[in-house]
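dude i think i finally got it to work??
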Amino acid sequence: MNSKKNILICPLDWGLGHATRCIPLINYLLLFNVHVVIAAGGRSGKLLKEEFPHLTHIYFPGFNVRYARYSPFFVIKMAIALPWMLWSIVKENRQLKKIIEKHAIDAIISDNRYGLWSKKIPCIFITHQLYVQLPIAVKWLQKPVDSLVKFLIKRFTECWVPDTEGFFNLSGNLSHKKQPDAKVFFIGPLSRFSHKTKEIHSGGNDIDVLAILSGPEPQRSIFEKIILKQVAGTSLRTVIVQGITGEKTIKNLLPHVTLLSFQTTTELEILIQRSQLIIARAGYSTLMDLAVFKKQAILVPTPGQTEQKYLARYHKERIFFYSVSQSKFSLTEAQHHLPEYHGIALSPDETLLLRQIASLIEKIS
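look at this
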């Protein structure tokens, strides 16, 4: 009789960041000889199938968000979508009950999907946003939103924050604004490169610019066009990873510009090691990856995403990373400012994460 416990992992499908930071978590869980069931949809589901083809995969779509083309309309668009977002949380919970019965799930790990809680089995909520950053126009709603988030997280057995508690942290006020509740545990940064040796590539830095794109449309495509336009008139050896899962494509647009649809963890690691400069969104998962490699980068937050705007500003003030808005992005100017910033080195703390995983395994044993 198979005695392996079944643990369900389900990331939010807003960009690829939530899925990529589940990669090290899955790898660590497999060390504990458990059966991991992955529930995901969209690009997140495709990426995790590429990384873990041997595991059980369930198609589990989330709320389909599409960001406004112009950031001033972002607040209006999200306000209109709020009732559907709350309804999707209710639907998620109903679907979860069926999945638990069908696949004999013993525990749940939800990355920012508020509906994946259960009273019957241990359920873990992973987030770096204990306190949501609201736009200035609706800042008066901050306290009610904080209370709502706290209420939703309290439905889970525990909350794991992928960051450290001290001064050298990555999330700032997103998770350090107040003393956390007793159910909140800091597990250290979660990077998909946690298990890697960082020594795969032994050649020189033959890529001048590596642009790693991510996030919802249409802003992903808009930013891609901006970068292409700016590197086209230069001789900079440029590689753009589009972050589009599905059919894997390679396009040599110009002698010095290559477009890749997506890369596996190992492939992307090699590209990062070969690169002198990285351009990326200010997403939290990207910051965790950059911290592992101690790489310099230009951060360009997705328009309308207050969380990314805050993180870009936070790391710029600490002189870690240079950042600039998408509308004002200039590669030439950014390169001029780069020597003023020194990056950040914050390696994953396996002890913190393994302690919480061991505690979870004990609960279901």
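The first strand starts at residue 6 and ends at 11.
im so relieved honestly
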